[in-house]
Amino acid sequence: MPDRNGAHELHEDAMTGDGRIDFEIIEGLFFAYRDFISDPDAILEKSGFGRAHHRVVHFVNREPGMTVADLLDTLKITKQSLARVLKQLIDSGYIQQVAGPEDRRQRKLYPTRAGRALALALAEPQSRRIARAFEEMDAGDRRTVIRFLTGMQNAKSE
């Protein structure tokens, strides 16, 4: 059936963005992310874990004692999304959940020795990639990259 408004029209030329869209940076971010997570993905797969497990292990190790509510806020996910992942990490012995000292309903999260080892195993190949990328750069370049990444966080699209 023919499409009257041309929505199914084929395009054989590459999309350029006409200077309005920075495809070079977009593709750089796609490929950098793909490679940045490939090593941790391979490690996680052996345990039947995925990227959500990686994020939880990372942030609990970076801020031991954070509450479940803090973790939900950091990850910007729902309780339901976190519940399964957190249960698997607790049941596997990577994270421990402790009732808060003032409010017993509050749940604080701590890495175990195994959780700390997993976090380091996941971060080491990523850290090597970062170090290689910075080999030809100076301290000013590092500050620029940090500013760029910070600027990308929560930036509103227009």
Summarize the structure.
This protein is mostly helical.
Strand content: 5-15%
Assembly context of the chains = single chain
Largest sheet properties: 3 strands, antiparallel
How many E strands?
3
Spell the H/E element sequence.
Answer: HHEHHEEHH
- Category from helices, strands and their pairing: mainly alpha
- Range of helix content: 55-70%
How far apart are the termini? Answer: 36 Å
Query: If helices are DSSP runs of H or I spanning 4 or more residues, what is the number of helices?
Result: 6
Shape: extended
Q: Strand sequence of the main sheet, in spatial order?
A: 1-3-2
Q: Round the Cα radius of gyration to an integer and report it.
A: 21 Å
Mean pLDDT: 91
Low-confidence stretches: none
Essential attributes:
158 residues; mainly alpha
Characterise this structure.
The protein has about 160 residues and is mainly α. The protein has six helices and three strands. A three-stranded antiparallel β-sheet has the order 1-3-2. It is extended.
Describe the protein's topology:
Elements: H1 23-45, H2 51-62, E1 66-67, H3 68-75, H4 79-91, E2 95-99, E3 107-111, H5 113-134, H6 139-152
Antiparallel strand pairs: 1-3, 2-3
